[in-house]
């Protein structure tokens, strides 16, 4: 079948026209996409908004909230409310009263060998033989006293043996307890015993000095002290690493160690010396344990 020249030309020019239109459409689409944002803004601002304002002015105005007639105020918390809030948020605290002990010493030296020799000599004579250390100075302790006048009186009677009196002070303390209310109750009970245990060692030692001692009664007293102190140590062991708990535990541990050591001592001279030693050692342990909490 033959196609005329006129028909072929028409088909050729028609395809060129379609291709040209396709190109225009594609270019228009690209231009539209690039300018749609700008055009949209233009139409919205210049065309849509004026029409909406003309026909629906109440819909296009900005919404304005009325100003409050009075400024909003909140009442200040009462003193009672603040006290309740403080009681809830504050950590429980433990208070320990001030305590003192007076050491009668025979030697004061920074030389370790000298002080050990002096302490051993004091123990052989029925003295404490305890070495108290403070900074770079060491003291060989003959005996310890709850009252300074008693220490002075003994010093006057033993001028050749004694050199001086060293006052130890465990200051009054008040510190927070992180371990909770149950631990606080146990600590409060134990705190009441803190000054009593060194005092008990002291009283038993004085009986020896007066010649009024009874070995069986002394052993019974030591066992009673151990029975009294041990439950506090075991209970506090359940409350972790709270500083207050650890401090009291450390002190009680020293008291228990001294009681157990003395309860098996049969030599009266060593028992007398051991009681004086325990008095100084337990107070020193208390002082060392509690001072970091200041």
Strand adjacency order, main sheet: 3-4-2-5
The geometry reads as elongated
Radius of gyration: 46 Å
Distance between the termini: 118 Å
Query: How much strand?
Result: 5-15%
Given as residue ranges, the uncertain stretches (5+ residues, pLDDT < 50) are 1-14, 85-89
List how many beta strands DSSP finds. 6
Which structural class fits the helix and strand makeup? Answer: alpha+beta
- Helical content (DSSP H or I, runs of 4+): 55-70%
Main sheet overview: 4 strands, antiparallel
The residue-averaged pLDDT reads 79
Helical stretch count? Answer: 10
**Strand/helix succession:** HHHEEHEEHEEHHHHH
Please outline the helices and strands.
Blueprint: H1 5-55, H2 57-60, H3 79-89, E1 93-96, E2 99-109, H4 112-124, E3 130-134, E4 137-145, H5 148-157, E5 164-170, E6 173-176, H6 181-193, H7 196-210, H8 215-236, H9 243-262, H10 268-290
Antiparallel strand pairs: 1-6, 2-4, 2-5, 3-4
Helix pairs in contact: 6-8, 7-10, 8-9, 9-10
């Amino acid at each position: 079948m033959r196609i005329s020249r006129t028909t072929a030309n028409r088909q050729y020019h028609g395809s060129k026209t379609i291709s040209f239109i396709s190109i225009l459409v594609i270019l228009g689409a690209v231009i539209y996409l690039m300018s749609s944002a700008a055009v949209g803004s233009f139409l919205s601002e210049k065309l849509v908004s004026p029409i909406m304002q003309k026909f629906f002015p109440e819909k296009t105005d900005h919404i304005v909230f009325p100003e409050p007639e009075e400024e909003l105020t909140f009442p200040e918390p009462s003193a009672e409310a603040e006290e309740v809030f403080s009681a809830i948020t504050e950590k429980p605290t433990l208070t320990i009263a001030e305590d003192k002990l007076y050491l009668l010493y025979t030697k004061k030296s920074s030389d370790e060998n000298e002080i050990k020799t002096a302490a051993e000599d004091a123990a052989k004579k029925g003295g404490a033989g305890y070495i108290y250390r403070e900074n770079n100075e060491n003291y060989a302790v003959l005996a310890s006293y709850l009252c300074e006048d008693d220490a002075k009186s003994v010093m006057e009677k033993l001028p050749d043996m004694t050199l001086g009196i060293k006052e130890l002070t465990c200051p009054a303390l008040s510190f927070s307890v992180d371990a909770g209310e149950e631990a606080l109750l146990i600590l409060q009970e134990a705190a009441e015993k803190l000054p009593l245990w060194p005092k008990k060692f002291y009283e038993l030692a004085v009986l020896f000095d007066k010649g009024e001692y009874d070995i069986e009664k002394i052993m019974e007293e030591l066992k009673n002290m151990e029975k009294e102190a041990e439950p506090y140590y075991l209970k506090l062991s359940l409350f972790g690493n709270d500083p207050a708990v650890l401090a009291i535990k450390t002190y009680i541990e020293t008291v228990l160690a001294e009681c157990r050591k003395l309860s098996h001592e049969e030599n009266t001279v060593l028992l007398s010396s051991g009681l004086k030693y325990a008095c100084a050692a337990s107070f020193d342990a208390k002082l060392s344990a509690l001072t970091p909490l200041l």
